[in-house]
User: Fold this.
Amino acid sequence: MTEQEDMTINSMIKGEQLQKILEAALLAAGQPLTPAQLSTLFTDEERPPTGEISRALEQLGNECAGRGVELIKVSSGFRMQVKQEFNEWVSRLWKERPPRYSRALLETIALIAYRQPITRGEIESVRGVSVSTNIIRTLQERDWIRVVGHRDVPGKPALFGTTHAFLDSFALQNLDDLPTLAEIRDMESLVPELQLEVSDQTGDAEGMSDKKTDDPKSESAEAADDESVNAEQDAVPQ
Assistant:
C-alpha cells in the first residue's frame, strides 16, 4: 500500500461520524436524498463507498427507534421526519390551517394512482360525474400527477399517472406499496397520511354511483368541484 493510499483510507469518513453527518444533512435538506446525493457531501479523500453510506443509513434508522423522529425510505430517497404519533403536538408550531381537499379531488387522485395510466374521460366514467379542470390543475401544481402519454384514439386524450412527489407525500417507495383496494374502505382513510382535512362542501361525491356524466346535474357538480378546489388552493401554503 502506497503512502497516498494509506492517507486516503485514514481520511475516509466512517462509523459514528458518518452517521452524524448523514443525519445532519437529511434534517437540513428538507427533502429526500439518495445515497448518491449524500456521497457528494464528501471530498474525494473523505468519501466512503456507497455501500458504507447505505449501512450507515440503516444503522441510523435503527437508532431512531426510541426517538421522536424516524428515517424512512421513499420514492426519491431517504427522509428524516417526525413520527406520526407526535404530529398532534408538532403541528401546533404552525398557525396555518391544514389544506382542505374535497372528496372529489381525493377520489380523482385515487383513481389515477390505482388505474394509471388513465384519461380524464375514464375517470369521469368511473366517478359518474365530470372532473373539474381545477382538480386536475391542483393535482398537477402539487406535482402529484403528470401527463405520461396520450391514448391512441380520436382526440388523443392525455394519459395521467402519479409522480415521485406523490409517492413521497404518502411515504411510499413505489406503487406496489399502495394499500390494496380492500384495505381502503373510503377516501378519508387516505387523509391521515397527509394530515389533511376532507371538505364536505362538494356534493357530487354523495351517491356518485347513480349519476352519469351526461346528466345535466353534472354541470352543477363540476361547479361544486370548482368552488371546493378554489377554496383548497387558497388554503395550500405557497
Remarks:
- The longest helix spans residues 217-235.
